[in-house]
Write a structure and sequence with these properties.
Blueprint (H helix, E strand, L loop, with lengths): L4 E4 L5 E5 L1 H9 L3 E5 L4 E4 L11 E6 L4 E8 L2 E9 L2 H22 L19 H20 L2 E7 L5 H5 L16 H10 L14 E5 L14 E5 H7 L4 H4 L4 H12 L3 H18 L5 E4 L1 H10 L6 H6 L8 E2 L5 E5 L8 E3 L5 E4 L5 E2 L2 E2 L3 E6 L6 E8 L5 E6 L2 E7 L3 E5 L4 E4 L1
Parallel strand pairs: 1-4, 5-8, 7-12, 7-13, 8-11
Antiparallel strand pairs: 1-2, 3-4, 5-6, 6-7, 9-10, 13-23, 14-15, 16-17, 18-19, 18-22, 19-20, 20-21
Length: 425
């Protein structure tokens, strides 16, 4: 079953989300109209000031590249989404701008007074690529609050000492033998080694934690000395030194040794933004709770759920049971709002084209989601996707199957106006 449908009354007051069949019935009877396509919402043609509503819980699993979103009504998960960030694209764009400016200033050879010591940054400053993650999540919090009666927010944040809460007398080695034993380290290793065996690359099999330098030969239990291996590889290596075990595979040996010492970039990004996101969510005025990554994985394993971002979001915090009424998440990809660069450059940084300030052509602008039914010519067929506009009226449409070029604006009907995001199911 797909996600539940958001409902507003004629005064735009959020009501309880309804089953897609109920929404279809209201639309067919003329009692409601489509308010928004993504996420799908309808608006009633009458006010319902006395209609009771049940507070919903909005849950987030923040990630470096993709964040999971789930909306829970009691123990029922009625909506799921996955939000793809564009932090790396922002970083690459800023790097390109810096290189172009540096090259131009060096070519002009004029004296510029040093300014690298007279700039200050405010407290809590984050680079644009990291601040983007906070801003996009907060944008969707505000959107969901306008579409549904959100009563609280849950975020995967920090590790609380849950064992101490349950047993005040706990101490020493007992901390290593609780319900969450090994979950934090194992989750870290799964992300670091991409859920594959470090030696043979096999996926979707039980993976074991393996010491790169055997403990019997002085190896430590530090995370930098741990990797993941399938059972056959782990047994074959035994307590051999990794250089001896991979003597005939120098490329694989160098890759493993390099990856073992490399920092986990994505984990660092999440760690840098988690408190900024927590404080931003707190500023909304809604009650906010948090849970740990180990607790999320423990809940997901206990409920026998597959590893996906939106299911991780549903498992954040303290939960007893979950009933999933939504099985297919809405996939949201941040695309930005274009660029202000007026002079396009080639790959060497030299000016190659001029960009017009006019963004709207024939009633459309690049980024709109349209449905086009072409009846004549070489492009006969139906297409749905994001449109790339030109002043000539000949548009390109980016669909799931690929890019369709040369579609006239006369065949295009808008489905969803540009808002900086692309949507798929």
């Amino acid at each position: 079953m797909s996600n539940f449908v958001f409902v507003l009354d004629t005064n735009k007051r959020p009501l309880d989300p309804v089953h897609p069949g109920t929404a279809r019935h209201l639309l067919n009877q003329g009692k409601a109209s489509v308010f928004r396509r993504y996420p799908f919402a309808i608006i009633l043609k009458e006010a319902c000031p006395d209609a009771p509503v049940q507070d919903l819980e909005l849950k987030f699993d923040p990630g470096s590249k993709t964040s999971g979103i789930a909306i829970k009504q009691g123990n029922k998960v009625i909506f799921g989404a996955e939000l793809q960030h564009r932090g790396q694209q922002i970083k690459d764009a800023l790097l390109s701008r810096r290189q172009l400016r540096r090259g131009r200033r060096n070519r002009k050879t004029r004296y510029r007074k040093a300014r690298f010591l007279n700039r200050t940054r405010p407290d809590g400053y984050l680079p644009p690529s990291l601040q983007h993650r906070v801003d996009t999540v907060l944008t969707w919090v505000n959107r969901f609050c306008r579409l549904a009666p959100i009563g609280s927010i849950a975020q995967e944040l920090v590790r609380f000492d849950l064992q101490l809460m349950q047993n005040p007398e706990i101490s020493g080695v007992q901390y290593q033998q609780g319900e969450l034993q090994g979950y934090e380290v194992r989750e870290y290793l799964l992300e670091k080694w991409s859920r594959k065996c470090a030696y043979c690359g096999v996926e979707n099999v039980p993976l074991e934690i393996e010491h790169i330098q055997p403990r019997s030969k002085g190896g430590s239990d530090r995370v930098s000395n741990l990797s993941l291996a399938c059972n056959p590889c782990n047994q074959a290596k035994g307590n051999q030194d990794i250089r001896e075990f991979l003597a005939g595979k120098p490329d694989l040996l160098n890759r493993i040794l390099k990856q073992a010492k490399s920092p986990l970039k994505d984990a660092a990004a999440v760690n840098s933004t988690r408190w900024a996101l927590f404080n931003a969510l707190k500023a909304t005025g809604l009650p906010i709770s948090s849970g740990t990554g180990g607790q999320t994985k423990f809940n997901r394993t206990r409920l026998n759920l597959p590893k996906t971002h939106w299911l991780d979001a549903a498992c954040v915090g303290q939960i007893d049971s979950l009933l999933f009424l939504a099985s297919k998440p809405l996939l949201i990809a941040a695309k930005g709002h274009g660029t202000r660069q007026m002079c396009g450059t080639d790959k060497y940084g030299f000016p190659s084209r001029h960009r017009s300030r006019i963004q709207v052509h024939k009633g459309f602008q690049t980024g709109d989601i349209v449905a086009a039914t072409v009846t004549t010519g070489k492009k006969i067929g139906s297409y749905v996707g994001r449109v790339l506009c030109r002043a000539s009226g000949s548009f390109d449409i980016a669909t799931k199957a690929g890019r369709v070029a040369g579609v006239s604006h006369k065949y295009c009907n808008p489905i969803h106006r540009k808002d900086g995001y692309a949507y798929t199911f």
